[in-house]
Design a protein that fits this description.
It contains seven helices and 38 strands. The protein is mostly beta strands and 577 residues long. The protein is globular, with a radius of gyration of 24 Å. The protein binds 2,5-dideoxy-2,5-imino-D-mannitol (DQQ). 2,5-dideoxy-2,5-imino-D-mannitol binds next to β1, β5 and β15.
Length: 577
């Protein structure tokens, strides 16, 4: 059982926000001139325990995730030779539970004229439920982006370790007005009732992001459709597009080829310009081969996002074993290149998340796959505890650098919420910066202080504020990294977004946060708003790390339930297994 001791929160914050930071000697441990011994301590502590990463070197996009014959496969953009981007090939790992992963040899390497300069992102399609095929982008001898096929060499190998490239590659080329340097990342194909396969490829045509559609009846010969699946004005290159059906009601996932009246479609695009993933909900008309969004909004900043933090080049797949759709995504580093060189690795994947349509039909909801809960160990549990104004209490009994926390905050008096200004909807991160965790509000800020040093000089604040609009309450979620590390070379933004919940009806706000060394993944309102952050506190190296719940609003609130668990370390790509 954790024991919580309220202390004078304001005084702590006063100290934090007026402090000049650490002395120079505390900052040197990761710089190239530091001695090897100290830097390797830092590198071990920033390495995650429960998140997917290769043993070493550079990783970016998740590629071709699939479930086939009882085995989950995850491929990924990989540089086998270095910790910086380049020499792109497809790394490969397999799993039977999405948690423990066995490393395999790279599945697709640069060795043909049509991919000699790089094997870039792509997807897997299981033809008629029995034959997996990969579509990927190759960078050819002339540096053109072309689309290629790879197929398993031996279907009876349970791990599909070897992949061959048929002689008919490439199957799609940048012709007829397609820009050869903006044409990539084929998605999982879907099969229509007319017997044709369809697949779309990300592109940019005259500044407009687009998903160019191709059709085929044999998966070998592909013909470009008269119109793209969808185009948006001014959004720039669409990388890694994804297109899939979701049930209008219910959490069950659907095969990518499903389509009926009970189904809505999701079109996701990764915007190269902002390195952020956005999506639209809408209806897909197979006869006309067009996707019609529920709402057409030109300004991409208003499009929905899977995650309002660091989360890019994501990709989903249908897990036919458990009838769910699962989302993978690349989380880039936020430290310096010099740090990456010393760490010997760069890039992790977010934990796999189940994804479905919210019952309100307005947005998607995400939740870490159930299997992750098998890693929960001893924990701290607490019920109905008051969190007074200025209260800060420590969540003890868990390893604060490798934990899973779930809290329900109950708000007895909504009336004291401060008035809401609709202009805040345009830039919630600015609101998180202007009204950070030290600024006392009416209802809020309240939430968690994560990876905190003993004197709070370092901490990541994940918190809520509740505002009163004229006919409803608005809930803001912030994940503020600006004090996450004393190290000046680390990128430390503040992220934020509103959570689409009816706080009056639900009476409480939930927050689940996964803390795993250099990553903090937060799910608010049952997964309606997600924010992921990368953080590199010095305190991870010294080891005296703390986790707190706090309330800096003017009203006492109640923690109706708090559960925190230590997370065990799974086997993820341990070499020599
Ligand atoms: N990364 C890949 C491209 C893709 C980009 C190259 C997105 O295929 O467009 O590594 O991060």
């Amino acid at each position: 059982m954790a024991s919580f001791h309220p202390i004078l929160f304001f005084l702590c914050y006063h100290f934090v926000f007026t402090s000049n930071g650490a002395s120079a000697s505390r900052r040197v441990f990761l710089f190239p001139e530091s001695d090897q011994e100290t830097s390797s301590i830092a590198s071990n502590q920033y390495r995650t325990a429960c998140h997917f990463q290769p043993p070493k070197n550079w990783m970016n996009d998740p590629n071709g995730p699939m479930h086939y014959n009882g085995v989950y496969h995850l491929f990924y953009q990989y540089n086998p030779y270095s910790v910086v981007a380049g020499n792109k090939s497809w790394g490969h790992s397999t799993s039977t539970d999405l948690i423990n992963w066995t490393p395999q040899d790279p599945a697709i390497d640069r060795n043909k004229p049509y991919d000699i300069n790089g094997c870039w992102s792509g997807s897997a399609t299981i033809l008629h439920g029995s034959k997996p095929v990969i579509l990927y982008t190759g960078i050819d001898t002339e540096k053109r982006q072309v689309q290629n096929v790879a197929i398993p060499k031996n279907l009876s190998d349970p791990f599909l370790r070897e992949w061959t490239k048929p002689d008919y590659n490439p199957i799609m080329e940048p012709i007829d007005g397609i820009n050869a340097s903006q044409f990539r990342d084929p998605m999982t194909a879907w099969h229509g009732s007319d017997g044709h396969w369809r697949v779309a490829v990300g592109a940019e045509i005259e500044g407009n992001g687009t998903a160019i559609l191709y059709k085929s009846n044999d998966f070998v010969h592909w013909v470009r459709a008269a119109s793209p699946l969808h185009t948006s004005r001014g959004s720039g290159m669409w990388e890694c597009p994804d297109f899939y059906p979701v049930l209008s009601k219910g959490r069950q996932g659907l095969d990518t080829s499903e389509n009926s009246r009970d189904v809505k479609h999701v079109l996701k695009m990764s915007l190269a310009e902002t390195q952020s993933d956005h999506y639209m909900l809408g209806r897909y008309d197979l006869e006309k081969d067009v996707f019609v969004p529920d709402k057409t909004v030109d300004d991409y900043r208003e499009w929905l996002r899977y995650d309002y933090g660091k989360f890019y080049a994501s990709k989903t797949f249908f897990d036919e074993k458990k009838k769910r759709r699962i989302l993978w995504s690349w989380l880039n580093e936020s430290d310096s290149k010099a740090d990456d060189l010393l760490k010997g690795w760069a890039g992790i994947q977010a934990v796999p998340r189940t994804i479905w349509l919210d019952s309100n039909g307005r947005q998607l909801v995400q939740w870490p796959v159930k299997e992750l809960e098998s890693l929960r160990r001893t924990g701290a549990h607490l019920h109905n505890t008051e969190l007074k104004t200025g209260g800060l209490f420590e969540i003890k009994g868990v390893k604060a650098s490798q934990a899973n926390v779930e809290v329900d905050f109950e708000l007895p008096n909504l009336e004291i919420a401060k008035p809401f200004d609709p202009s805040w909807l345009i830039d919630p991160p600015k609101l998180c910066r202007d009204e950070d965790a030290s600024v006392q509000g009416g209802l809020g800020p309240f939430g968690l202080l994560i990876l905190a040093s003993p004197n709070l000089e370092e901490h990541t604040a994940v918190f809520f504020r509740v505002y009163k609009a004229h006919n409803r309450y608005r809930v803001l979620l912030c994940s503020d990294q600006r004090r996450s590390s004393l190290r000046p070379e680390v990128d430390k933004p503040a992220y934020g977004s509103f959570v689409d919940i009816d706080i009056k009806k639900e009476g409480k706000i939930s927050l689940r946060t996964l803390i795993d060394h250099s990553v903090v993944e937060s799910f608010a309102g049952g997964g309606r708003t997600c924010i992921t952050a990368r953080v590199y506190p010095e305190v991870l190296v010294t080891g005296d790390i703390h986790l707190y719940a706090f309330n800096n609003g003017t009203e006492t609130i109640k923690v109706s339930k708090l559960q925190a668990w230590d997370m065990a370390k799974p086997w993820i790509n341990v070499e020599g297994e």
